[in-house]
Structure formats: C-alpha cells, structure tokens
C-alpha cells in the first residue's frame, strides 16, 4: 500500500487528566508525560506526501482543571542553523522552523484554533477559518504559555493553554486535532494526520481524533478589557491650514465569552494608529485595487462576514471608518449549536462637518452546516446615513443574499454559489434604480477540483448594472471615464477558468515538480456583446527548497468603453475601442529558507496601443533572528504612439524589520511612488511590556516627489493594556 493511503485512516490520541502539577520548563520529566499516549509516525506533506517524515516528532497531551498541556519532542538530526525569521510573535509558519497544533473542538471541520512555537520560544496563535484552506488568521490572540528546551539531538516544546481562552462544547469527548512540524534544514513539513501536498497543513478536513478520558470543563468566564490612550501631533500642509495639531484620545475594546462557543466583542472610540501602512502598488488596470483588512476588530472571526467570492464581496470592512472616526461597535459571533453559527455586527461612525454624514453599518449572517463538510448561509448588510440623530431615509443601501458551499467526501471537489440582491434608495426617495430585480442582483457558481497532480476551476458570474454594495467590494463592475471623472457601472457576465497539471519528480535531488497551467477570463454584457478576454499559459519549475522558475505567455482583448488615462500620466486619453495585444514574461523566486531571498521578474509586450516593459525585484536579507532588511523595486516603461505621451513609472520601497528582543520591535517602510507623486515614510516602534499589552510610537511623513514639498506628517504615542478578569 502506498504511504499516501494512510491519509484515509483516521488516527486517534488518548488524553488523560494529570495526577501531578505540570512544570512548564521544556523538560518532559513528570510522570504524567511518561504515561501519556504518544502521537508519532508523522507523514510528509512537503516535499513528498507519499513518504514518511524523515524528521522524527513525538507529541503527548494531558490536562488539569485549568489548562490543556501539549508536550512535543522535535528530533533534530541535520546540522545547521534553524530557520528563524524574527523574534516577533505570530511568525509565518511555512517559512519558520516550528511545531504547531490545530484544534477543532466542535468537530465541524470548519473552524478551529492554532498554537505554535519555534525553537527560539517565539509563539504564534490564530483562528482556523473556512476549514483551514487558507491557513491560519493570526490576528486572533489568546493568553497562553510555553517553554522550549534545546538539547543536542532535539528541541522540546511544552505548552499550557487555558481552557477559557477558546470555545468548546463541554459535553464532547472527541475533538478533531492535528500536529505539524517544520524541519526546514531538510527541508520538510510533516503532520501527524497526513495532509495531501495540495492542501494547507491547517486544513481541518485532515485531522485525527483527540479522545478524552472525560470531557473537560469550562473554567469560568473569559472577559478581557483592553483600554488605550493616545497622544498625537500632526500637520497638514496640503489640505489643511498648516498648523500643528496636538490631540489626546482614549477608548477601549472588550472581549466577553458569553458561553463556551459565543463571543461578544465591543469597541468604543477605537484607534488604529498602530496598524501597518498599506504596501503601495503601481496600478495599470481600470479596476479598483483590493487591499487587505489589518484592523484587529474586523479581522477576528471574519469568516462569518467575508462572504461571496473574489471579486464580488457583499461586505468589505475597509469601507468602514477610513477617513471618519468610529464611535462604537459590537460584534457577536459563535456557534448556536452543533450545526448553526451566527455573526452579528453593528458599527456607528461619526459624521464630518461639511462632508460625509454619520453612518451606521450593520450585518447579520447565519450559517447552517450540511453533512460533514458543507454549509448554507444567509446574510443581510445595511448602510444607513443619519442626519443628526435621525435616519436619513433617502440615503441607505441594503444587500441580502444566500450562499452555499459544498465539499465532497473525497475532499477533492468544492462547489460554491450565491445569489445577492441589493435594495437601494434613489436621491428622490424612490426604492430602486431599476424595476427589474435581476438588474439589482449578482450571482456566482464556482466549481473547483484540487487533486495532487490535476487541478482546475471554472467560475460563472453575473453582475447586474444596478447592483449596489456600498459596504462591499465589486472590483469588476465599474469602468472609469477619465474625461468626465465618473465611475460608470457596466453589467457583465463572465467566466473564469483554469486547468493545470503538475508532474512530481520523485528521484530528482533538486527539482520537485514541473507544472503547466492555463488561466482564462471571458467577459460579455448580459446581451452577450463582447467586453474582455484574457488568457495566460505558463509553465513552472518548483525546486525542493521551494524556489520557483516560471515562464508565461499572455493574450489580451480589452474593450475600453470610455476615454481612459490608463497610467494616470498620459498626454491624451485612450479612446473607446477594442485593443488586442500580447506579452511574455519570466520570473524567478528564491526560497525564503535562504538568508538572501526574493524574486525577480521581467515582462515585455504590447499594452493597449503601445508597448510596456515591466521589471520587478523584491530582495531581502534575513538578519537571523533579529529581523529582515529588504527592498521592493517596480519599474514600468510604457511607450505609446505620438500624442499620447510615454511613461516611466517607478515604485521603490526599502523596508527594515528589526526584533531586538521578543518584546521590542522596530518596523520602517519607505515608499517612493512616481505614479502617485508621493514619498512616504512610516516608522513604528513597539514595546510589548506585558502579555498582549503594548506601547507604540508611530511616525508618518508624506512628501510630493514633483516639488519636494512636504504634504503632511503625524506622530502618535499609543498605550494599550490587556486586562483579563
């Protein structure tokens, strides 16, 4: 029997209550560790999921009235340094030597928790959402403890995780669980319950069973108060009066466990000054760009709110509170019972005099698990403007919808679908922009197959021209008319399709796989008149150390409906027409397992009625374990026919990330962007003076690159303290 067949056999691990006190010192010398059941015989997930792990790992578990204990012995038989990216909490697991545990107490294979430690004792925790197919969301934080002991032949981990720090059903005697280990000197990633190489090791579809001698008990309420104070100084020379403004501020977050599986999060006058700035990009497309949410209040438990599929999202939290203050907010999330989950969020923002009105944002979602791995969901999203303390009945947007997700029992097929309907007020108070409900709807059907060698997906989308999602993200709906400055809705029907195949080279000492991949996109209007067509054919060589070399060929047909300044720097606008062009590119990325790593790529070919050369590099050096120094470089040379103007767009972004200790961090970004005519500096010093409690000092500065004049600057001192009750 091939080794990969073991993935169909569910492993189990017994756990017994400790009879003595467990001392957290990285030494498994207590009698309870000696008598505990052992999880071993790990299986490779990378590079060869058909082979047993070369690095031996042994895991034991026990518990008492307050804590769940995990003990792991990670045998180290390969000479060389461990791969440690930094000393900062919540490291990236795939590129760090580490041991991790994935817990699914509910047994639903959809939501869970992860705790990890690297050989230097740096901790990582997070939520496993959407079944773990996208990994772990590390914005979730819990108070727990660990210890690491390095020996000659192994490094040993002990974890103590309070039961009150995560939700579970006290009546369940069987939990789902898995363990993962990175030994990157080989390099190798292995798991206790085997996970096919095409899946994320956090995938809850591939977990074993944790068998309790008796169900653990909840240990009292879990209430955390997180107050903060700030002092800020700023000066706006571009849009303001140029005076220095000094302001104090204060607010508080609260986290309350209402039950073993239901959590209430509250925020009053939140401040997000410590959040990292967005990484700028050069935008040479007609559509708006998607930037990820980084504010902790919105990211935690976000799977209940981040519905839809890209590029159609009914709820996009970055629409809330950017540019206007948030007064308060509340979020209720969790399991109603074994089959039902719910999420309820409400946010109130303050109005800006002479600008945006005060707004209330609300969302409710309800999810029902079907079978073992599938679910249906329903939701309502609402944005309501206020005039003073009164509803502005002529300024609101409501969006409702139903979604389903199906995963096959063999874990290879996934089907997603939804129907969204918007309800929008006109300025004159009439209900809808169109009397036809389908004009105000969007829908998607997506089918995905993910096998070890063959993988494919096809997505069919419909977008009505009067569909509105004021709190959502509809990337493809609008086209720019740069002659009038308008964003105009263009209804469409589209299909996205992909087909790929990977050959694994089992006997090659350096090369892991060869892949060939085709991805296409086809846009038409609802009357089937042509809009766009894109196609990409690529081949990729993946090496054992995760380095990659790829070559791609691309073909485009782009229908411009309105005059467009596609680069933002043109002398004359591109006129409405059908543009046909091709380009080709080559790229190489060196694995992050090396001290010096990064990527380099070149792309050359047509670009609408001209040509474009794109050069990109991202070079980094790891000052192990103290941090990373790097620079991102993006250069575009665009040549148009006479009269349109040529463009040379440069984006260069040096960065420095230093972790002086496990509690003191410095991050500095410089971003020079000629497309935006802006030079940005962002420096953040963080001191973690107590568990999950921090002092931040953040400085930002923006300068106009055309004349060297300063636009604005700001300096913020923020202190927050995590108080557990």
Question: What is this entry, summarized?
Answer:
The chain has 725 residues and is an all-beta fold. Helix content is 1%, strand content 54%. The longest helix is centred in the first third of the chain and has 5 residues, at 31-35.
- Rg from Cα: 27 Å
CATH architecture annotation name of the domain at 3-212: Sandwich
Looking at the chains present, what oligomeric state does this protein adopt? single chain
Number of strands: 42
Report the end-to-end length measured between terminal Cα atoms. Answer: 53 Å
Estimated share of beta-strand residues: over 45%
Unreliable stretches: 1-7
- Helix content range: under 10%
Provide the CATH topology of the domain at 3-212.
Immunoglobulin-like
CATH class of the domain at 3-212: Mainly Beta
Count of alpha and pi helical runs: 2
Query: Mean of residue pLDDT?
Result: 91
Task: Name the shape in a single word.
Answer: globular
Helix/sheet category: mainly beta
Largest sheet entry: 24 strands, antiparallel, barrel
């Amino acid at each position: 029997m091939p080794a990969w067949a073991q993935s169909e056999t569910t492993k189990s691990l017994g756990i017994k209550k400790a009879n003595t006190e467990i001392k957290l010192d990285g030494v498994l010398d207590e009698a309870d560790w000696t008598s505990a059941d052992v999880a071993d015989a790990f299986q490779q997930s990378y590079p060869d999921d058909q082979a047993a792990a070369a690095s031996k790992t042994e895991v034991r578990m026990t518990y008492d009235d307050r804590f769940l204990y995990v003990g792991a012995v990670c045998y180290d038989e390969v000479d060389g340094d461990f791969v440690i990216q930094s000393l900062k909490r919540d490291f990236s697991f795939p590129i760090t030597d580490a041991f991790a545990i994935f817990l699914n107490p509910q047994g639903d294979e959809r939501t869970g928790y992860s705790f990890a430690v690297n050989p230097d004792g740096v901790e990582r925790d997070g939520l496993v959402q959407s079944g773990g197919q996208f990994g772990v969301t590390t914005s979730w934080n819990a108070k727990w403890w660990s210890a690491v002991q390095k020996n000659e032949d192994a490094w040993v981990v002990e974890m103590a995780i309070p039961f009150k720090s995560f939700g579970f059903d006290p009546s369940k005697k069987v939990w789902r669980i898995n363990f993962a280990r990175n030994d990157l000197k080989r390099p190798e990633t292995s798991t206790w319950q085997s996970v096919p190489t095409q899946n994320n090791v956090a995938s809850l579809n591939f977990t074993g069973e944790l068998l309790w001698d008796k169900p653990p008990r909840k240990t009292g309420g879990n209430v955390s108060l997180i107050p903060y104070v700030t002092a800020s100084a700023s000066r706006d020379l571009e849009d303001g009066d140029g005076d220095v403004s000094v302001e104090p501020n204060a607010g508080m977050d609260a986290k309350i466990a209402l039950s073993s599986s239901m959590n209430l999060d509250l925020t009053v006058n939140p401040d997000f000054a410590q959040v990292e700035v967005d990484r700028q990009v050069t935008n040479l497309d007609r559509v708006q760009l998607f930037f990820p949410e980084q504010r902790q209040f919105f990211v935690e438990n976000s799977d209940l709110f981040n519905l839809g599929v890209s590029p159609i999202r009914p709820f996009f939290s970055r629409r809330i509170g950017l540019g206007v203050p948030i007064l308060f907010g509340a979020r209720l999330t969790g399991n109603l019972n074994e089959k039902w989950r719910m999420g309820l969020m409400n946010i109130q923002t303050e109005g800006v005099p002479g600008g945006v009105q005060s707004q209330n944002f609300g969302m409710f979602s309800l999810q029902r698990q079907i079978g073992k791995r599938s679910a249906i969901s329903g939701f309502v999203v609402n944005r309501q403007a206020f005039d003073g303390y009164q509803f502005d009945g002529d300024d609101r947007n409501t969006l409702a919808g139903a979604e389903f997700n199906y995963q096959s029992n063999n874990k290879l097929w996934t089907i997603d679908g939804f129907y969204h309907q918007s309800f929008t007020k006109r300025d004159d108070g009439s209900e809808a922009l169109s009397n036809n409900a389908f004009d105000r709807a969007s829908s998607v059907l997506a089918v995905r197959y993910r096998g070890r060698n063959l993988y494919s997906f096809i997505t069919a989308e419909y977008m009505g021209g009067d569909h509105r999602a004021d709190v959502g993200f509809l990337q493809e709906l609008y086209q720019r008319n740069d002659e009038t400055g308008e964003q105009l809705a263009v209804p469409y029907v589209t299909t996205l399709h992909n087909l790929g195949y990977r050959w694994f080279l089992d006997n090659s000492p350096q090369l892991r796989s060869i892949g060939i991949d085709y991805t296409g996109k086809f846009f038409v209007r609802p009357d089937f008149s042509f809009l766009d067509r894109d196609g990409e054919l690529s081949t990729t060589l993946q090496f054992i150390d995760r380095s990659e070399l790829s070559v791609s060929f691309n073909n485009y047909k782009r229908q411009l409906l309105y005059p467009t300044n596609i680069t933002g720097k043109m002398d004359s606008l591109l006129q409405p027409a059908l543009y046909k062009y091709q380009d080709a590119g080559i790229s190489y990325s060196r694995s992050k397992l090396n001290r010096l790593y990064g990527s380099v790529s070149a792309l050359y070919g047509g670009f609408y009625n001209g040509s474009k050369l794109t050069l990109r590099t991202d070079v980094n050096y790891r000052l192990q374990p103290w941090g990373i120094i790097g620079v991102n470089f993006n250069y575009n040379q665009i040549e148009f026919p006479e009269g349109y103007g040529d463009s040379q767009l440069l984006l260069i972004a040096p960065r420095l990330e230093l972790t002086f200790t496990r509690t003191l961090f410095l991050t500095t970004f410089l971003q020079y962007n000629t497309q935006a005519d802006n030079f940005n500096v962002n420096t953040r010093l963080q001191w973690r003076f107590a568990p999950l409690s921090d002092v931040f000092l953040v400085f930002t500065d923006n300068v106009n690159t055309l004349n060297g004049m300063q636009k604005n600057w700001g300096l913020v001192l923020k202190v927050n303290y995590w108080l557990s009750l």
